Amino acid sequence: MSLLQNFFGFILPPRCAICGRVLQIDQGICDECIENIDFISDNVCYRCGQPQGDFIDKRGHHICGRCLAHPRQIFRFSRSACAYDNFSQKLILDFKFHDHTDLASLLAKMLYVAGKDIFAAGVDVIIPVPLHYTRLLKRKYNQSALLAKELGKLSGVKVCYNAVIKSKMTRPQVECSGSERLTNVKGAFRLKNVAALQNKHVLLIDDVLTTGTTLKECAYAIKKARPKSIDSLTVARVL
Known about the structure:
Blueprint: H1 2-11, H2 31-36, E1 55-56, E2 62-63, H3 65-69, E3 78-83, H4 86-97, H5 104-114, H6 116-121, E4 125-128, H7 133-139, H8 143-155, E5 158-159, E6 164-166, H9 178-185, E7 189-191, E8 201-209, H10 213-223, E9 229-237
Parallel strand pairs: 3-9, 4-5, 4-8, 8-9
Antiparallel strand pairs: 1-2, 6-7
Helix pairs in contact: 5-8
């Protein structure tokens, strides 16, 4: 097997998923492109993960004005690995629509680093945002499920794929305006396996956070199982 892998590595060397440069080590993307990804790391809101938390709470955590004004929210914590820009967009679109499922491992590693606060606080089960079965048949795979699978391997946390289903066919959120996004996914998700989530710390996984409408609507379905907490983790977010 090692000889076979070396042979294919010689005739088909690994290339950077962004710029196409040949890689000496198969790490998904080259060092130069890694430098150009806008990772979200320092000074984020402790609750929602939005960069540049404006205030400091009693525990010394950065917190944004919105979370300070609305402390009771559906998510205990929300985190994203990077900003959604030209560099991360290519990675995510290739992964999501162009069958580059090999990127799941790299993107899951980004998720694992970005979600260190969440895992430190405790996670019992990982849930990928589900696709409607008609879209799953058309796309052939659920990108969030692939991310969750790889993240489960890294973290040792169980992944549950059937606890929540998408029971309503909706338009792609990218085609909707801000106000349409809410009505588009309203009631689209349904809780299927209560026992898998009851009294659990649940981590919800998706690829991109734009307005957060899809994640929140999925979380409302999960909340019916009365979990201890719900967190969200995405590869990228629109800033």
